[in-house]
Amino acid sequence: MAAAPPPHASGLSPEVLAHYDAMPDGERTIPAIDPKYLSAEKARQEVGYYAPHPPGTIIVDPEARFLYQVMPGNRAMRYAVAVGPDGYAFSGEATIPYQRDWPGWRPTDNMIKRDPGQYAQYSDGLPGGLSNPLGARALYLFRGARDTHYRIHGTSNPWSIGQATSAGCIRLYNQDIVHLAENTAPGTRVVVVPKEQSGLWTHPPIPIPNGEPT
What we know:
Blueprint: H1 14-18, E1 23-25, E2 28-30, E3 45-48, E4 58-61, E5 66-71, E6 75-80, E7 82-83, H2 85-89, E8 92-101, H3 109-114, H4 116-119, E9 137-143, E10 146-153, E11 170-171, H5 174-182, E12 188-192
Parallel strand pairs: 4-12, 10-11
Antiparallel strand pairs: 1-2, 3-6, 4-5, 5-6, 7-11, 8-9, 8-12, 9-10
Keywords: Cell shape, Cell wall biogenesis/degradation, Glycosyltransferase, Hydrolase, Peptidoglycan synthesis, Transferase
Family: Belongs to the YkuD family.
Pathway: Cell wall biogenesis; peptidoglycan biosynthesis
């Protein structure tokens, strides 16, 4: 039997690194993620997760900078994220009525007002593409018929993943947002946990004698 290939200098296996190789996506090719921007913590992976929500639910933990998609059997697919100010400002529940491939982007009026030198040039919008801040996919969050203007999206800056960033909502590696989008149906429920509940559901509930688990 042939020996398994050695891990990359990053410590990641070839199988994990393959998830972040260059990948064709319609007429575009998503560039590979430089391994220096990856780690075992940041690579998408299945983990134990004990949220009281049905499979398919997306749970965002901005403080921990992780996003979880609930799977059966107390499991979840975990993705590393970067979080901008809008990502910290939102908590609670929403639904995803639709998603877009290679979406266009326009900075908010507040972003233009706050930093016109950086954002005013994009006041008419920026078409979708490899340099667009929303990356390869965007999932749009609504409460009822109201757009929350909160997005889960890709990024043109893979170095930012796992960081607090200067703008935006919740961003993933482009390879990861494509993977998440492929597994997210219209109407998917999203739960964004507040800072004081960060890390909730990452460990099994502790049973108490003659009572319900806590």
